Amino acid sequence: MSYGSMFKKRSGLTMSEVLFTLAIIGVIASLTIFGLVAKISDVKNMAALKKFYTSISQVTMFVILDRSSPNYWGLDEYSQDSSALAFSYYRPYFKVVRECSNTTGCWQYPTKFLSGKVYLKRAQMYQYMFTLVDGMNVIMNVYPRDIVRSEFGVNVSKDSVVFIIDVNGNSSPNQMGRDIFAFVLNDKEVVPGGFDNTYNCNKAASGLTCAARVINDGWEITYY
Q1: What contacts 210, CB < 8 A, 6 or more positions away?
Q2: How crowded is residue 211: how many other Cβ atoms within 10 Å of its Cβ?
Q3: CB atoms < 10 A from the CB of 12, how many?
Q4: Distance of alpha carbon 86 from alpha carbon 102, whole angstroms
Q5: Stated pTM of the model
Q6: What residues pair up with 183 in beta bridges, in sequence order?
Q7: Which neighbouring-strand residues pair with 101?
Q8: What is the rounded CA–CA span in Å between residue 154 and residue 183?
Q9: 86, 66, 49: which is closest to 183 by C-alpha?
Q10: Closest CA to 156 of 207, 191, 206
């Protein structure tokens, strides 16, 4: 055996090294793909949200022309009758494919806050729920003004209708601030949740005020 052969440099990789390298590449690739899919989903959701905001703003103009200011509708907080009455005013202008009132069939559960905590486990008695022709699911509630101010970040003078919209329908993640957003009917128009205060639009909070944050950020999700 020659002296040189004793110190011949090892070439190539062992099987364990190859497998380890492939595993690292796979992890990186999966993270990249996951991030890309999430980004595409966000873009689609923002396009749907923009479409809904434009539509609900236009429809509300017609409803108020027909019915006067919501201040005179006689709506009571946490009332299924009030939610149903408000829906009946909007119904002629919506393309609805399914009405569920306060029963199952028009909403996916559980619904989560942006923080990940559960927001809704089941339908509530005071809700009115329906599905639009483009697959978006909508909840209409009448909330007391103090809740609208504190939870939804909109200063109102009376109990108000809140629209909670799931822009991608039955698809996940069913989470406030990601695919679910809130809009509030004040005395003259519909405004995004967080219109006056977006304080709880962060990943440790509810996300109920993220609609205004998204719009202010140029229709982009920047908070998680």
Answers
A1: 114, 176, 177, 181, 193, 194, 198, 201, 221, 223
A2: 31
A3: 6
A4: 14
A5: 0.83
A6: 163, 192
A7: 129
A8: 9
A9: 49
A10: 191
Q: Whats the size of the chain, residue-wise?
A: 224
Per residue in 116-175, pLDDT (tens digit) is: 999 999 988 899 999 999 999 999 999 999 999 999 999 999 999 999 999 999 999 999
Helix axes 80-90, 15-67, angle to 10 degrees: 80
Other C-beta atoms closer than 10 Å to the C-beta of 100 total: 17
**Amino acid 224: pLDDT:** 75
Report the distance separating Cα 24 and Cα 134, nearest Å: 41
For residues 163 and 195, the answer to whether their CB atoms sit within 8 Å is no
Q: Which amino acid is at 70?
A: P
- Cis? peptide before 173, omega within 30° of 0: yes
DSSP state of 127: -
With residues binned 3-state (H G I as helix, E B as strand, rest as coil), the percentages for the chain, rounded to 5, are 40, 20, 40
The 10s digit of each residue's pLDDT in 17-68 is: 666 666 666 655 554 545 555 566 888 999 999 999 999 999 999 999 999 9
